[in-house]
Specification:
Length: 281
C-alpha cells in the first residue's frame, strides 16, 4: 500500500507543491474561471457536506465554503505544503466550516455514505489507479450524491502546454509520459472518463466540452511571463537548473518568440479546452 502513488506524493509534497504554493495567485487567476464552471453544476444548499478532492492550496474549498454557511467542506490532498497554505488561507478568511486532511483518495479509507457532493478542480488525474480512486469517491457519497469536476482535454487544444513543450523539446530531452499515466492530461480522452465512472457505478454521467480563453501571468510583460512560465514546470526547471546560461537564454528567447502572439498587453491569453464532468451516485 505504501508505495502506491509514491511518485505523486513525492512530487506534490516536493518540487510540484512548492511551485503551486509560490505561484498560487497566478494559478488561481488561470484556473478560477474553469473551476467556476464545475462549481456552477453543483446543487448547493446551506446544509451540504462537501468533499474537495486534491484541493491543493484550497481556492475552491474556500470559494465553496462561502456559499454554504451551514454546510461543511473537507479539502483532501496528498501535498503537505499545499494543505498548509490552504489552512492558512482559511484562517485568514475566518472560515470555520472548512477542514483539511492529508489523504490519498485512491488508497486511504474515507467514511461511507457521508458526503452530498464530491468536487474537484484538476485534482483527479494523478491516481495510479483511477478506478480504485473513483470507487472510493463513490463509496464516500450519500445515495444520489453529486460528483462534479473539471479536467484538461488534449494538450493540442491547450496551446499553453503543447506550444511550450514543442519549444522546450528543441533544447531538452523532455520525458513523454505514456497516455493515461498520472498527470494533468491523463483524462484527455472522454471515453476513458466515461469508462472509469461507469465501472465505479456512477450514473447520469455527463461530460461537457468547455472551451474558453484563460489568462496566464496577468500584468506581466512577455519577457516576465515567459520567465515565470519556465518556473512552473518542475521537470523543466530542474533540467534548466543544470544547464549552461547560454542554453537557458536560448530556451527563453524561443518561448518568447512562440508566445508573443498570445500576449495581449496584460499577460498571456490562451485558448483552453476542458471537460466539465458531472455524475450521480
Ligand atoms: C493540479 S493540482 C490542483 C490543485 C487544486 N485543486 C487547484 O485547482 O488549485 C492537483 C492536486 O491533486 C492532488 N493529488 C494528487 N494525487 C492525489 C491523491 N491520490 N489524493 C488526493 N490528492 C491528490 C495534488 O497534491 C495537487 O494538490
Amino acid at each position: 500500500m505504501e508505495n502506491i502513488n509514491s511518485k505523486q506524493k513525492q512530487f506534490w509534497s516536493g518540487a510540484g507543491g512548492d511551485v503551486w504554493v509560490n505561484k498560487q495567485n497566478e494559478m488561481d487567476i488561470m484556473l478560477n474561471p474553469l473551476g467556476a464552471k464545475a462549481i456552477d453544476k453543483l446543487d448547493l444548499n446551506q446544509e451540504t457536506k462537501i468533499l474537495d478532492i486534491g484541493c491543493g492550496c484550497g481556492a475552491t474549498t474556500l470559494e465553496i465554503a462561502k456559499k454554504i454557511d451551514d454546510g461543511t467542506i473537507t479539502g483532501v490532498d496528498i501535498s503537505e505544503p499545499m494543505l498548509k497554505r490552504a489552512s492558512q488561507n482559511a484562517t485568514a478568511l475566518e472560515l470555520s466550516n472548512i477542514n483539511f486532511q492529508v489523504l490519498d483518495v485512491q488508497v486511504d479509507e474515507m467514511p461511507s455514505n457521508d458526503f452530498d457532493i464530491a468536487f474537484s478542480r484538476f485534482g483527479v488525474m494523478f491516481f495510479e489507479n483511477p478506478f480504485e480512486a473513483f470507487s472510493n469517491i463513490y463509496k464516500s457519497l450519500k445515495e444520489d450524491g453529486q460528483l462534479s469536476f473539471v479536467c484538461w482535454q488534449n494538450p493540442d487544444l491547450n496551446p499553453w502546454q503543447s506550444l511550450s513543450i514543442q519549444v522546450i523539446k528543441q533544447f531538452l530531452d523532455l520525458p513523454a509520459p505514456p497516455p493515461k499515466s498520472p498527470g494533468p492530461f491523463a483524462f484527455e480522452d472522454k471515453t476513458y472518463i466515461q469508462e472509469i465512472l461507469e465501472k465505479s457505478n456512477f450514473k447520469d454521467i455527463k461530460i461537457d466540452d468547455n472551451q474558453e480563453d484563460i489568462v496566464m501571468f496577468s500584468g506581466k510583460s512577455i519577457q516576465e511571463a515567459c520567465e515565470d512560465y519556465l518556473t512552473i514546470n518542475p521537470v523543466v526547471t530542474e533540467m534548466l537548473k543544470n544547464s549552461e546560461e547560454k542554453l537557458k537564454e536560448e530556451v527563453l528567447a524561443a518561448l518568447i518568440d512562440k508566445f508573443s502572439h498570445f500576449h495581449n498587453g496584460d499577460g498571456l491569453l490562451f485558448p483552453s479546452a476542458t471537460w466539465i464532468v458531472t455524475a450521480k451516485k
